[in-house]
Amino acid sequence: MAAIESFDNIHLDLSREHGKCRFAESGLGWKPAGGGDTFTLDQSNIGGAHWSRAARGYEVKIQQRNSGVLQLDGFQQEDYERLSKIFKSWYSTNLENKEHSLRGWNWGKAEFGKAEISFNVQNRPAFEIPYSEISNTNLAGRNEVAVEFSVGDGGKASGKNGATPGKGRKAAAGRDQLTEMRFYIPGTTTRKEAEGGDAESGAEVEEKSAVALFYETLIEKAEIGETAGDTIATFLDVLHLTPRGRFDIDMYDASFRLRGKTYDYKIQYEAIKKFMVLPKPDDTHFMLCIGLDPPLRQGQTRYPFIVMQFKQDEEVTLDLNLAEEELNGKYKDKLQPHYEQPLHQVVAYIFKGLANKKITAPAKDFTTHRQQYGIKCSIKASEGFLYCLEKAFMFVPKPATYISYEQTQSITFSRVSGAVSALSTFDITVHLKSGAGSSQFSNINREDLKALEDFFKLKGLRVKNEIDEETTLMAAALRDEAMASSDEEVVGPKADRGSADEDEESVDEDFRAESESDVAEEYDSEHSSDGSGSAESDVDNRVDDEDEDEDMEEKKEPPKKKKKSA
After folding, report:
1. Residue 61: which of 120, 12, 4 has the closest Cα?
2. What is the 8-class DSSP label of residue 260?
3. Which residue stretches does the UniProt record annotate as biased composition, category Acidic residues (predicted)?
């Protein structure tokens, strides 16, 4: 057998780019065809090897002694005999042929190996998940566990002696990435049964729910809760507005951990892109806002910002768990051994020292009419506070929105027509460059209009004030209406005012004052005009009326009945 065996078109750990793989007695190496870093593995680190079907033909999976898994994909079926001799002669390892289950069942048994978890169907593996690809796990339900996978750096394969660049390298190799998987695990079991053994008869063995035991075992195997070094500082029961809940914060040398009742997160300081301290307008709280890339994931929801809230007058005394040599060396002028200050300041200073990020505060050139930095407003139905920073807008707590001034095309002040509060509030619409959309902040107090307009002009932003334009147009319309009404009042020498003219006094030539003779003549033409004998006439009239009444009564009496004769 030759001193070196070479194979072309081989992919390392599902990498997008193929390369050349070479085996030698001292170990193996892989180099990408397009150039780049070479991966090498010493023969002393090879603990086992398996041969199986894979996406690009056949693959060799190597179990490393340092708990890692190495995948070489792209071999042909006829390469098996050649590779089997290489592993047996040079590495004293048998290349086992492993067949996968192709039934497509979604129920089976999960087994925890040294470097990966295997989902088996009828004693055959359906798929395997390396622990190095698991970023987090949470109890998603009563009998359900959610397993989250890391998002890497685009599938770049590099390293020496089995060293990997970090979690998520294999997941990022494909165009599409699997980000989460959930397992339904009912019933109860014991730890010994979960590991494949039988419970001892007569011995008291504590039974636990199978889902809780799976969750605890996965955290231990994947080292999700493990961090390098001891805890430098711990803050208990910190209120988080985004994501909502209370979490304990454990701060380590290279990462920090959020521990809640349901969810547990481990976040690298490298993922922190922004860090802001924002005073709340109630004058009793401070908010700490941490921008993350990649964002924090909770199921299907992504949180690009973590928003914490602290009381302004809450004091804390804290001693950092750091040796004096580290404080004077690595963290010189970054951290202090002892803190006795308000809690929000201590948390901010420690984050600044460990993550080496600048603390951003609101711009001093802007304050509201109440001399505060936060503007109360809303995005759609979500109420919050808008802060004007030196280089960007920031809306908190939910949805946390960050808009830099460099991305802003223009800003429009407007007022919602027909709204009850249109006279006391207004809206701001921020238009982004390159047609990237816009964001609207509604229900801002009208008294802050002038201060905002002056601040935006100070920052060199284009501002369009539709409120002033509407006011100008309205004033012009009122002036036109007033002029028109005044013109209508002077239309000629005599305007027709309807019945109003009838009220004015005028002399009616046909009118004559009535007299006693006029009234008498209207009813009695033979009556004398001098009015004599009126009393006698009245008596005669009354007598005539009485005679007429008697005649009417006689006519109304019914006829008398005739008596019957014997």
Report:
1. 12
2. -
3. 543-552
Evaluate the CA torsion angle 491, 492, 493, 499 in order and state its sign. negative
How many whole angstroms separate alpha carbon 404 and alpha carbon 388? 10
Amino acid at 332: K
> Letter for the amino acid at 142?
R
d(CA 49, CA 87): 8
31-69 pLDDT, tens digit per residue, is 998 888 899 999 999 989 999 998 889 999 998 887 788
**Residue in 68, 129, 123, 115 with CA at minimum distance from that of residue 99:** 123
Amino acid at 478: L
3-state secondary structure string across 117-156: EEEEECCEEEEEEEHHHEEEEEEEECCEEEEEECCCCCCC
Structure tokens at 80: 């098996």
Specify the length of the chain in residues. Answer: 566
pLDDT digits (tens, 9 = 90+) for 298-342: 877 889 999 999 999 999 999 999 888 888 888 988 999 999 999
Long-range contacts of 316-322 (CB under 8 A, 24+ apart): 316/340, 316/341, 316/342, 316/343, 316/346, 318/233, 318/346, 320/232, 320/233, 320/350, 321/230, 321/231, 321/232, 321/233, 322/232
**Bridge partner list, 145:** 139, 183
Distance CA 191, CA 212 (A): 11
Q: Please, what sign has the CA dihedral across residues 90, 91, 92, 98?
A: negative
CA 127 to chain centre: 34
On the question of pLDDT at 477 being above 50, the answer is yes
Tokens of 390: 């030196």
